[in-house]
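PROTEIN DESIGN WORKSHEET
SECTION A - STRUCTURE
LENGTH: 188
TOKENS:
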């Protein structure tokens, strides 16, 4: 992530809910960014010093070369959207292009549940992963493993992918409801 990239919160941060979007206005040392958060209308909510580990890249800022000239009429082209690099359009003749690829993970508006399966080992890896994604302490995580099958997390596709990857990495058995159409990798 870098300056002018659009990011979103992967967890609640200083009272702002998960999924709040913002633009990186200043990069400190790669672990921390000053982020201008905005609401659905695009109005600024707050500017906060934000650790990188609660942010996910939404839109990568691609610097435009100084001027883009229309191939058809020679007029200077304009970005379709000044905040996100979705393409260019000609104000004179309307010629232009738009990027068509949008990460399906970000487009997915479904809410998913991560259900820990019965019969998981009470191993440190499993308990640590459950505590992490359920946001609880180890004692409670141990109970959840014992009570399984139990929902340990629910949320949007990107945060469910994160949660599932933590369980994968701990070699825990789980299920996602409804069926999760995105790739889940085992970290490390
Ligand atoms: Zn043109």
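SECTION B - SEQUENCE
RESIDUE ASSIGNMENT:
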């Amino acid at each position: 992530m870098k300056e002018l990239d659009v990011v979103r919160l992967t967890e609640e941060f200083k009272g702002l809910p998960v999924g709040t979007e913002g633009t990186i206005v200043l990069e400190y040392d790669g672990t921390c960014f000053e982020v201008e958060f905005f609401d659905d209308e695009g109005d600024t909510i707050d500017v906060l010093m934000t650790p990188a580990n609660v942010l996910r890249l939404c839109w990568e800022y691609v610097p435009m070369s100084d001027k883009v000239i229309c191939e058809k009429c020679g007029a200077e082209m304009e970005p379709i959207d000044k905040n996100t690099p979705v393409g260019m359009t000609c104000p004179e003749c309307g010629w232009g292009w738009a990027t068509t690829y949008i990460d399906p993970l970000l487009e997915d508006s479904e809410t998913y549940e991560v259900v820990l399966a019965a019969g998981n080992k009470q191993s440190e890896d499993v308990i640590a992963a459950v505590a992490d994604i359920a946001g609880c302490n180890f004692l409670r995580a141990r109970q959840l493993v014992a009570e399984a099958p139990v929902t340990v997390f629910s949320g949007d596709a990107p945060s469910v992918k994160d949660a599932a990857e933590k369980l994968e990495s701990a070699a825990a058995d789980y299920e996602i409801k409804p069926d999760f159409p995105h790739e889940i990798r085992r970290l490390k």
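SECTION C - NOTES
Residues 64-101 form one domain.
The helical segments are 104-107, 124-134, 138-147, 157-169.
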